[in-house]
Amino acid sequence: MKEILKILENDAHATAKQISTMTGMPSTEVASIIKQAEKDRVILKYKTMINWDKVEDEQVSALIEVKIAPQREVGFDAVAERIYRFPQARTVYLLSGTYDLLVIVVGKTMREVADFVSQKLAPIEEVQGTVTHFLLKRYKEDGEILGGGEEIKRQPVIL
């Protein structure tokens, strides 16, 4: 199963027949494994990665570090759930270190992201502080180099 999952993670368009060829397993068995993995929520979603820098639809991404006070008996989970239920929160991770959560937010403008932090995130009682980092440029994401094919232009060094 692990081999099938790795293939799908790399290429969500891979068909059971293609995976069968790659693994040597019968395509009916591959299809059955995939269907069961979807049912068991091992496979959560099939995803297309977009290089938004090449599209005329501007968007702003921010990584927000959040310091929270854990709640008795539920720890960080209840606060994390409140945060991940906001549609602006694309990703929420529990971290080790100075901050407890990392929230990745996408908005149309910097103001929209700032409003999310000030009006939705900061007012949560358990939130003790935030640090927002605006994403300036993406070089590589999920293993894909986004600026591919561009030649690095350097001036020759003459000694």
Q: What does this 3D model show about the protein?
A:
The protein has 159 residues and is of the alpha+beta class. The protein has 2 domains: 2-39; 52-137, Alpha-Beta Plaits, CATH 3.30.70. The protein has 5 helices and 6 strands; from the N terminus they run αααβαββαβββ. The chain has helices at 2-10, 16-23, 27-39, 77-84, 110-121; strands at residues 60-68, 89-94, 101-107, 127-134, 140-141, 144-145. The strands form 2 sheets. Strands 2-3-1-4 form a 4-stranded antiparallel β-sheet. α2 (16-23) packs across α3 (27-39). The longest helix has 13 residues, at 27-39. It is extended, with a radius of gyration of 21 Å. The termini are far apart. The model has no long low-confidence stretch (mean pLDDT 90).
Give a summary of the structure in a few sentences.
The protein is an alpha+beta fold and 159 residues long. It contains five helices and six strands. Helix 2 (16-23) packs across helix 3.
Fold topology:
Blueprint: H1 2-10, H2 16-23, H3 27-39, E1 60-68, H4 77-84, E2 89-94, E3 101-107, H5 110-121, E4 127-134, E5 140-141, E6 144-145
Antiparallel strand pairs: 1-3, 1-4, 2-3, 5-6
